[in-house]
Design a protein that fits this description.
Length: 198
């Protein structure tokens, strides 16, 4: 997480697995590919926050653990961590409203030839189901598709500005996501093979 000066306030930039809650008039930003960011706010107590999660659940679509890392990388934990931080600042869970973004199939592939869901598809499904179950209304969204997005959540009025990423950023995010998934699959395979010796 980085904090940079921005006009008369500051901008908080989230990386994957991070979340941030505030009662200040700040701007929270992140860059999304297949990941999802939930922008939550309590308009009565004037508290807002954002998370950036990589996977809906700790296990992959086929119940294969892909990554073993910080809890904030998983949707279910990322949502509870953000909500709990907002409540510590004085938010009321009953007042929460949501705006959600991301879940793009930026690698433009399906996980197999039977056109099963991509990671982005599962993330989108997760956030919709979570919010419905928790009775948190999703007032706006830009989810799915084949694009990456820059997301900026403004704390003064809870508006969200989206910018579809340009060609150079698209190539960068594709490269980063491919490297990320390869690294984590390799780590999973390594942990599986070492576990066989115990």
């Amino acid at each position: 997480m980085k904090a940079l000066p921005f006009k008369e306030t500051r901008r908080i930039i989230l990386d994957p697995g991070e979340f941030y809650a505030s009662r200040e008039s700040e701007v929270i930003s992140t860059l999304l590919g297949s990941c999802v960011a939930a922008c939550l706010y309590d308009p009565i107590n004037r508290i807002f926050g954002m998370n950036h999660f990589l996977l809906a659940y700790r296990s992959h679509a086929h119940n294969i653990p892909i990554i073993e890392s910080e809890e904030g990388r998983y949707g279910i934990y990322a949502m509870e961590l953000l909500i709990n931080d907002m409540m510590k600042l004085g938010a009321n869970r009953l007042n929460l409203k949501a705006k959600c973004f991301g879940g793009g199939n930026v690698l433009k592939l399906r996980e197999d030839r039977n056109r099963k869901e991509t990671v982005g598809d599962l993330n989108v499904l997760f956030i919709k189901e979570f919010l419905k179950k928790e009775n948190i209304p999703m007032l706006s969204a830009c989810l799915g598709g084949n694009i990456g997005r820059n997301v900026h959540f403004v704390g003064s009025d809870y508006s969200v500005f989206i910018k579809k990423i340009d060609h150079d950023q698209q190539k960068l995010i594709e490269s980063e996501e491919r490297r990320y998934w390869k690294k984590n699959i390799d780590e999973h395979e390594k942990s599986r093979s070492s576990a066989e010796f115990w």
